Amino acid sequence: MIRFFKSLQSATLFMIPVIVFLLWAQAFFSHSFIVRETGMPVQKMLMDMVTALPVFMQVLLAIALISLEAIYLSIIVNRHEVLYKNSYLPALMYGLLMSLAWPLIQFHPVIFTNLVLLLTLDKIFSLFKNESPASPLFNGAFLISLASLTYFPAIILFILFLMALAILRRFNFREWTIAFIGFFLPYFFLSVYFFWTDQLITGWKTILVNFIPTTSRFGFSIGKPLLALLIMLGILFLISINRLRRNFYKNVIRTRTNQQIMLWYFILAAVSCLLLKIIPLYHMMLLSIPLAVFFSYYFLAEKRRPLLSELILWFTIGLIIWNHV
Fold this sequence. Notes:
Strands 1-2 form a two-stranded parallel ribbon. Helix 8 packs antiparallel against helix 12. The model has no long low-confidence stretch (mean pLDDT 84). It has one domain. The protein is globular and about 65 Å long. Helices cover 69% and strands 1% of the residues. The chain has 325 residues and is mainly alpha-helical.
């Protein structure tokens, strides 16, 4: 199957919506498709708009957004040379990761958040040897702030933005100032709105009460199919990281730098669960972007044992189907 995708790269783009549609088709029969668990302002506005649509339109919108994100991820990876060669495998991996199990077949806020974070990632990578960085700096920081107003744990990725700025560019006080202004601007506008509506204290209290917990706990149970799938994904992640480590210095500087940023993306997205009192299963989808890149790297770089990589892929797909049965 890997050889098939390598030889027919363009066909992958057309297959992604089909794969996502097949995995999300059961959502047409779901009675609780919309997730509304947090009090973030932008999320509430977006979910109100989605709720107003018929159920079949809600499902089609989710499928369209995930397919768009998958294709856009591959475009970003290829444009900024995150992998050592162009490939549309990240689109396939992302589509599968966003459709892992039946409990994830819901319209959750991470679907919107990941789209904003992909736009941010595009801005981050464009900072490499950029002679006019002001625009991507402001826009990237602004987008992360907007993502956090949709799903609050995404706020921790502002640390990623600052780390990427430190890695990609020499220290420049003006550039760092632009980044902080871009990040705090949406929160300033939100505070002004709260002030106008006479809820400056209560509005922020409502947001902070839902987050910044003293303890965190999982809000879902892990059955045997999901446990087996998570173990498989963990093994695949370790194999992928080991493969990347072995080939790291064979890549050009730009590729190595972008891969470092993706690794920090994964770490910070995993740590972001500490910002939640109750960790929902869909929170795992924040990891789908870096995981899709790492998994794609393994399948592209595994040349000595192609049969093993194909068996791993098919076994993973089998576990995903098991979680949908």
